[in-house]
Design brief:
mainly alpha, 3 domains, about 50% helix, elongated
C-alpha cells in the first residue's frame, strides 16, 4: 500500500486520503499518473466546490447542495454569475409563481429544476417559450444534438 503525506498528515493509503478529501480514487490515480500534484488535484474546481464556506467537506457538490437544500443547477449557475460560495449555498431561492408548475400542475422550486426534471437545459426552455411554444411542448420536445 502506498502512503500519502499531505499537509503534515500521513495517510495509510490512497483510499484513506481520497475518502477524507471526497475524491474518487480512480480520479486521483489518473491525475497522479499524469503528473498532477496533490495540490493541483485538490484545487481543481470540481473538488474545490465540494467544500463549503465553513470548511466542511462533502463527498461531492450534489451532497453539499442537498445539505443546504438548494438545487445543484441553481448553485452552479450562481457561481457562474460570480456569487461567492456562502451566498450561492445559503441565499433562499426566489420562487416565481410562473416558474413553479409544469403543464401537469407539478410544483418545482425554480424553472431550472423543472427543466432538469424534463432533461432539457434552461436555455433551451427559455428560447422555446420566447418563440411562442407552449409550456408542454417546450418541456417535452427532445433537444436535438449534433
Amino acid at each position: 500500500m502506498k502512503k500519502v503525506v499531505y499537509n503534515g498528515k500521513t495517510y495509510s493509503s490512497i483510499k484513506e486520503f481520497c475518502k477524507e478529501y471526497g475524491i474518487r480514487q480512480s480520479y486521483f490515480s489518473y491525475c497522479s499518473k499524469n503528473g498532477y500534484s496533490i495540490e493541483e488535484i485538490l484545487n481543481h474546481p470540481k473538488h474545490k466546490r465540494s467544500v463549503d464556506h465553513n470548511g466542511q467537506m462533502y463527498a461531492n457538490i450534489k451532497e453539499m447542495c442537498k445539505f443546504y437544500g438548494i438545487e445543484k443547477g441553481t448553485f452552479l449557475a450562481r457561481l457562474d454569475r460570480g456569487w461567492d460560495l456562502k451566498d450561492a449555498l445559503t441565499k433562499p431561492v426566489k420562487k416565481h409563481s410562473f416558474a413553479s408548475q409544469d403543464h401537469l400542475g407539478r410544483s418545482f422550486c425554480s424553472i431550472s429544476s423543472m427543466c432538469h426534471f424534463y432533461g432539457i437545459s434552461f436555455e433551451a426552455y427559455n428560447v422555446r417559450i420566447k418563440s411562442g411554444w407552449s409550456k408542454q411542448k417546450a418541456l417535452t420536445t427532445p433537444v436535438m444534438t449534433r
